[in-house]
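call fold(seq) -> tokens
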Amino acid sequence: MKLRSFRIQKYRNVLDSETVTLDDQLTSIVGKNQSGKTNVLRALHKLNPASPETYSIGRDWPRNDAMRPDAHHPVCTARFELDPGEEATIAAIIGREVIDRSVEIKKNYVGTFEITISTDAGLALDVPTPSEFEDLAERLPPPPAPPMNAFRSAAITCLAEARRATLEGRFEALEGLWSKHEPRLRTHGSAKPSQTESDFFAAYAAGLKEVLVAKETLAAPRRALHEYIVARIPTFIYMDEYHELAGVMRLEELQGRRRRNNLSGTDETFLILLKLLELDLDELIQAGASGEAEIKQVRQHQLRVAATRLTQIVRDLWQQNSFRIHFDVDGTLLMVNIERDGTRSIVSLQDESKGFRWFLGFVVLFMYGSKSSFSNCVLLLDEPGLHLHPGAQRDLLRSLEDYAATNLLIYTTHLPFLLDLRYPRRIKVIAQREHGAVITAELTGSQPDEKLTLQAALGIELGQHYLIGDRRNMVVEGAHDYWVLSELSSLLLRSDEEGLPDDILITPAGGAGHVVTLTTFMIGQGLGVLALFDSDDEGRKHEAVLREEWLLRYSQHHGCTVLLGDAVGAHGDCTLEDLFTPEYYLQCAWPDNATVRAKLIELVGKRQGPLGSRVAAACKELRIEYKKGSAAKLLRRDIARQSRITGLGEETASKVRALFGAVRKAFGANVPRSAAGA
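ret:
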């Protein structure tokens, strides 16, 4: 089951997050400090945590909520998409088809699940209700009476595990608890059990048995359906502490710090690494102190196998095949070295970037948190990369993207370098409303400090190199477009026709992707803006991103998009060069070489596609240089010499009039003058 949306209610400062739709495998929740980002992740994590963690109504119910605390109020509501295999299994269990291929799961403060799934009959399935699981849990005994001791502490832990399994309807897990809990309780009990201990042993064993007998009162199909769905819920892994992996570790000193209980975060990460790779610290030290060559060879072999295993784990998890990890040892000095693929050089991890060391440490901690199981996980990262420099943050973002290729990942941040503006669907903003924190894809209603991270990311991406007016703005793909369109507008005005109004400023963005970034930044500042895209694959792709994913996020925005081909009535691909006939364009680009022009016209006429692409292909065939920038300058120069628009030919004049007419119309309908400086 894949998580597709979630909603958090009545959890700390989040009264109602509203439904958060996950449109991508990677989602970032952006917001200022103390905005509620952590609370959202923690509440989501407790839906099905990797390590037992429950909602606490006394600790987690919102302090400022006028409503009386209600343990049955849902905290997390999540919708999951079923894959075809899951859909078929459920249909086989219930004997009916599932219609919407999704299941909704709610979890309340008590800890019970409420499952909703629709069938082809249009009815919700009959699954066990939360109250039925609560009734079963009541059959478990209370913990032993105080005072607190090792036995009572162990009993409370065992009861919590049994209660959770009962409330969540995980009966298969419940059946094996007594065999696991009995030796644990005896280990923590007295050599000669006290009456309290004996009474609890009897009551706990009887309670578990009673629950397992009573569960049979639930109809088998209902129980089977519930257990199947609950078992398919992804494991949620929450991480908020990260430490880089040390490149060099003196094992005896590490052993001493462990003995004194004085471990640093880096020490703990290194010990976790050894544990995951089934390496024993004490045995490594003893082998290093041994004078026998064979023992040292065995140790080196163990380290070589462990390094190969770690390399493979990292590759499988992150889909990066750019390096190999080596463990080298000298006495009790253990060194982690890195060999880059394609090279024969091996360097110490200490000489790698801080971001890379952080990344490897993160992998180790993630392996530990997920019990080395990377399938069917939802990874929740709270403010990763805080201590990395901007370049390392960009590296981390790429690593997160690699991980998200196979597992869903949600992270919170207020770091602009951890946002990828090419994918607006990934970005959610946490904002404060009168009733508490909400998560939204709508940016306009957010407060300035709530949008600060996103605006900073936009500003960084733009590089602060653009001329942005407080008037209406038209953003075009490149400088060539700016030169030619400016001259064409001037030529229309010289011809006593309408060009661009004086209050419209043309700004080149440096590519179709940057048109999206620059336009979004302008609209976020309340400016009126129109984005003009070429009608080619790249232009259409980014126009759709801007129109469908960014502009819809701004209510009351003053912005729109125009595709060049649509504006001039062209069919198929159309770029700026297609405003002109091939003869005129080539005359401007090669004014002094009639022979080259003749050959180019012949070859261009035999090809399909945008004029610029046809010219480039013809030049390649003739082995002559073609620079679009130089051609655009010559084109601009010739346009400036013209006194009337008809001097460019009637076909071109008609297209130019249509283009500027479409731009004026779009500005009039979508970008009114009142938007300027709004």
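Residues 248-371 form one domain.
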